[in-house]
Amino acid sequence: SWGPEGELDAMRNMLESYPEGLVACVSDSFDIYRACREYWGDKLKDLIKGRIQDGKWGRLVVRPDSGDPTETVLAVVKILCEQFAEGVTTTRTGHKLLPDYIRVIQGDGVTHETIPQILDRLKAEGFAADNVVFGSGGAL
């Protein structure tokens, strides 16, 4: 375990070990909001943005894994849209969409009931459904 003091180094290691393609990273080992604001959205931002350049393609998928899924997904998407504002676009339906090099995956608490709740909340707050994907071990 990298521990709280090594969390940033662990995240950097993931990005450097897998510089292309998809890489999903559980980001709430200690504080999901700090991870999104200070690590992904600041200290590691250039590594993330560099995942799409010079003929290569890559995407970081930020994975919160605890808390109320509706509130957590919304908060994470909001923070990432703020931190990566220069790459955020607006869909033809008027919703904010994160840049191609970053998205969110929610697996904890995902059921056929919670998915529409999460998507409705994102829509009501002006965020595109394309910002998030869902996974589930057995609840679906």
Put the structure in a nutshell.
This protein has 140 residues and is an alpha/beta fold. The chain is built from 5 helices and 6 strands, in the order H-E-H-H-E-H-E-E-E-H-E.
Please report which band the strand proportion falls in: under 5%, 5-15%, 15-25%, 25-35%, 35-45% or over 45%: 15-25%
Order of adjacent strands in the largest pleated sheet: 1-2-5-6
Mean pLDDT: 93
Please state the structural category. alpha/beta
Number of strand elements: 6
Number of helices: 5
* Rg for CA atoms: 15 Å
The H-and-E topology, N to C, reads as HEHHEHEEEHE
Largest sheet: 4 strands, parallel
Please state the overall shape, judged from the principal axes of the Cα atoms: globular
Low-confidence stretches: none
Q: Helicity level, as a percent range? A: 25-40%
- Distance between the ends: 31 Å
Describe this structure as you would to a colleague.
The protein is built from five helices and six strands. It has helices at 7-17, 32-43, 45-49, 69-83, 114-124; strands at residues 21-26, 58-63, 89-90, 96-97, 102-106, 132-134.
Write the layout of secondary structure elements.
Layout: H1 7-17, E1 21-26, H2 32-43, H3 45-49, E2 58-63, H4 69-83, E3 89-90, E4 96-97, E5 102-106, H5 114-124, E6 132-134
Parallel strand pairs: 1-2, 2-5, 5-6
Antiparallel strand pairs: 3-4
Helix pairs in contact: 2-4, 4-5
Notable characteristics:
single chain; 140 residues; alpha/beta; four-stranded parallel beta sheet; two-stranded antiparallel sheet; 5 helices; 6 strands; globular
